[in-house]
Specification:
Elements (H helix, E strand, L loop, with lengths): L4 E2 L1 H4 L8 H7 L6 E4 L3 H4 L4 H6 L3 H11 L3 E4 L14 E4 L4 H12 L4 E5 L2 H8 L5 E5 L5 H7 L5 E4 L9 H19 L4 E4 L12 H9 L3 H13 L5 E6 L1 E3 L6 E6 L8 E3 H13 L1 H4 L2 E9 L20
Parallel strand pairs: 4-5, 4-7, 5-6, 7-8, 8-9, 9-13, 10-12
Antiparallel strand pairs: 1-3, 2-3, 11-13
Helix pairs in contact: 6-12, 8-9, 9-11
């Protein structure tokens, strides 16, 4: 039976040295536990530097006490150190609005980011000097440039999309495959791709799809082929297909998750898209091998990001 354990009880025994033996006596199997707070949201804001430094149970628990995180749950139920987030996250398409949101939200979580775009100086202007952000010049149409950009990253968010009228084939299709292959070669554990709702051919007569497919030559067709390149690359993946994008603040919405590309799902803020992409890396056991359509509506309570992928099914069974 899973029982919530309170580290605060240890503080009542300040006259006793806090030793491994004491922890073992009060918290049997302590090495199988990770920290979480009474509020799951707060748990995700435990500083990454503390999480990395405190992998030994004793040091971890002492740090938790200092930071006010007093509850524990079994690691099988919750972990603040998912394998896809134990190193820097590369965000491709760093000057795009969704990519900017990804970078900003990762930094807010005290996580290291490699911002990847064609012009590193432009990225540096966007994100300013930060010890958590490394800006790298690379081009998804030139796979050799991605190799260096992805060295040492644990996960990749690909939010790139072509800007020129003829760019979709090279960026959204072939470029997505290049990102996937380079990420796999570099040892990354997960790639999250930002695609679009309505990409599948079942929606080929949808007026919105037809407009977008003409806005940039073959844009939606190229995105669909790019998705398939990612799926066939052999690296764990998640495809996020947002509906109409807005610049609303996000974070206060009920997220609407669908699968099967069954028409336009509605509108969603870029901030919410970024949050879901990060959640996919944080919860690979729920998100890997899945494609979702994403929209949002203003309603209380907002959707906890820990539950975004609950109830979704892998692409092989969708």
């Amino acid at each position: 039976e899973d029982t919530v354990l309170h580290l605060s009880s240890l503080c009542r025994h300040a006259s006793l040295p806090i030793t491994s033996a004491l922890l073992d006596s009060r918290l049997p199997g302590s090495s199988n536990f990770h920290c979480t707070s009474a509020s799951t949201a707060k748990a995700h804001h435990l500083p990454l530097s503390i999480r990395r430094a405190c992998r030994q149970p004793l040091r971890f628990y002492c740090a938790c006490i200092c930071h006010g995180f007093t509850n524990l749950v079994p690691a099988s139920e919750h972990s603040d150190l998912p394998s896809n987030m134990d190193g820097p996250v590369a965000v491709v398409g760093g000057s795009g609005k969704v990519a900017q949101q990804c970078v900003k939200q990762l930094v807010a979580k005290d996580h290291k980011v490699v911002a990847v775009g064609r012009d590193a100086s432009k990225l540096e202007e966007l994100f300013g000097p930060s010890p958590l952000v490394k800006c790298v010049s690379a081009d998804v149409e030139k796979p050799e440039t991605l190799k260096a950009a992805f060295q040492g990253v644990s996960g990749v968010i690909n939010a790139s999309s072509g800007k020129g009228y003829w760019s979709a084939e090279g960026v959204d299709n072939k470029g997505s495959g290049n990102v996937a292959q380079a990420a796999r070669a570099a040892g990354a554990k997960h790639v999250v791709m930002v695609s679009s709702a309505l990409v599948t051919t079942k929606n080929r007569l949808n007026p919105v799809r037809m407009m977008l497919n003409s806005f940039r030559w073959g844009l939606m067709d190229s995105k669909l082929r790019g998705e398939d390149r990612l799926r066939n690359s052999g690296i764990p993946y998640t495809v996020v297909r947002p509906g109409g994008l807005t610049d609303d603040g996000g974070g206060a919405s009920q997220l609407l998750i669908n699968q099967g590309d069954k028409g336009s799902p509605g509108r969603v803020s870029r901030a919410d898209v970024a949050a879901v992409c990060i959640a996919a890396l944080e919860h690979p056991e729920k998100s890997a091998g899945r494609t979702i359509e994403l929209a949002a509506q203003f309603a209380d309570p907002p959707t906890p990001l820990t539950t975004v992928f609950d109830g979704t099914v892998p692409d092989s069974t969708a």
